[in-house]
Amino acid sequence: MRLEYFQLIDRIVSFDRAEQTIRVEAQVPTASTVFEGHFPGLPLMPGVLLIEAMAQSSGWLLIALNRFTRMPFLAAVKEAKLRTFVTPGQSLLISAGLVHEGSGYAVTRASIEVEGKAVCGAEITFRIVPFPNESFRASMDSLARSIGFPMEAAVDG
Amino acid sequence: MSSTFDTVANIIAETCDIPREQIKPESHAIDDLGIDSLDFLDIAFAIDKAFGIKLPLEEWTQEVNDGKATTDQYFVLGNLCTQIDSLVAAKGA
Q1: Given a cut of 60, is residue B1 above it in pLDDT?
Q2: Mean pLDDT over residues A38-62, rounded?
Q3: At a CB cut-off of 8 Å and minimum separation 6, what does B28 contact?
């Protein structure tokens, strides 16, 4: 996880096409400039970045379900609940499942656990569009490989 | 159609906080009710769930952009309800 680069996903643990779910791991860094301001003397993972982590996990789920043909963009976050503090160094297990796939949009339900305890959750809506250009798609492809995106299962499975 | 309209009107009223009495079959979702594209996603989600269908929003948008259809055909609520009824009938066929 590199907060400054909005890289909030470390590794895709599992993807289940039949169940339309994904599980992702992410390690909150022990040090980041983000913690200098959030907050001085009490470093906490910002809630908006936890929501972003759930959105990114959901996004990889949607990319996998669409066999890497289309790109989801965050459109709405509903019923987000931040249940407890997340601190530097903690390991997150992020889960996301498809709630509904519409025409040009999709809705997921995502949550984060730390050591088996629920940390946060939200219902997230995405617009889904063709990749805007080939270089962007290539960069997503590269990022996917770096986080263990299940290329074969997602593209061919 | 009337029950379809009631369901759709109730969804719009609840989703967009528009007084139910302002929502009529001849209302245009965008031009008359001021519903934007993001709110329409919420409405589409609720309609999809309520009727067990998938509104073909991308196909409709493409048709409008290509000049093959007008927004009235899909966004005037009476017409939208006719489209929904057709999709429901096709699902059951």
Answers
A1: no
A2: 97
A3: B71, B72, B75, B76, B77
The residue among A55, A63, A49 whose CA lies nearest residue A5 is: A49
CB A105 to CB B57 under 8 A?
Answer: yes
**A125 touching B (Cβ < 8 Å):** yes
User: What average pLDDT does the segment A135-144 reach?
Assistant: 93
Q: What is the pTM of this model?
A: 0.93
The token pair at B28 is 């245009």
Q: What pLDDT is recorded for position A49?
A: 97
Q: Give residue-wise pLDDT tens across range B52-66.
A: 999 999 999 999 999
Domain segments of chain A: what residues?
Answer: 3-136
Query: A17, A38, A127, A137: which one is catalytic?
Result: A38
Q: What is the mean pLDDT of chain B?
A: 94
The domains found in chain B, sorted by start residue, are: 2-92 (1.10.1200.10)
Comparing CB atoms, the residue among B45, B58, B59 nearest residue A100 is: B45
CB A20 within 8 A of CB A65: yes
Where do runs of H (alpha helix) occur along B17-67? 37-51, 57-65
A3-136: in CATH 3.10.129.10? yes
